Amino acid sequence: MRTFQEIKDNYRFTEAEMATLGSLLPVVEPHADQLVSDFYLLFQQMPDAAKFLQDNSRMTRLMAAHRTWLLGLFQGPFDERYYQRLQRIGHAHVRIGLSAHFVYVGMNFLRLQLEQIIDTEVEEQRREPVLRALQKILDLNLDIIARTYHEEEMRRVFLSYRLDNALIRFANRFTFGLNMLLLVGLIGLSLGVVAVLALDISMIFTGSPEKGLVSALGSLLILWLMIELLEAEVDRLQGGHFQLSLFVGVALVAFIRKVLVASLAHEPLQVELLYLAGILILGAIYWLVSRTEKRGS
Hints:
2 domains; 0% strand
């Protein structure tokens, strides 16, 4: 944050100009009450600003404070306490929710009114340095008061930015954790399918070759599907695309296995036809989804 001395140096606000402003005080002070009155009359005509000026006691306090600030433009002293007063003015505007737009409007109004007083009451040969000093002190005031709006806005944006980043980081880590859990689950299920396949194969050699062959074929289909799911999940973790066709394939393999088991259990014809219809519908969906994914890739 810049110091007040730094700000004055950047504006090249000299001791001579401070003295020039001091010499203007007897010129401006007789007009102070009228200037303040006209200032608030201007804002009472603006609905968005007038809502802050409804209370009469508040208006009285504001007008007194504004008169003090106005004369302070010429009285000084332009030291650290003056800087702190300007900062408090800016923070008060931010606190009540007054738009920075009205700060600029008000400063423009006072600039024009003060210039008109100078043109009327200051000798022509003195006007140029007087106007230059006036412009600097008004710009300096506007700079400090308006900067509080900017700092408050940056503070809110910074807090929002930090919160957003924290939430995004947490969501990314949480999602990654769920993906790892899914991957471990798929590995566990694959091991379970291998165990079931081994059990089905053992049935071939323990007196149930027909049942063992059909069951083993169904387990092989599921194992193939588990391998596809594992490969797809690993690929997705490495930046690949989500494959909807695999989930349709899960349902399709489940129906095929059902048909194999139903043929051994001698299920009614209607049940087997229902399974076959399911296979036909899922096969068509699988083909359409796979075709769409290939076009997309």
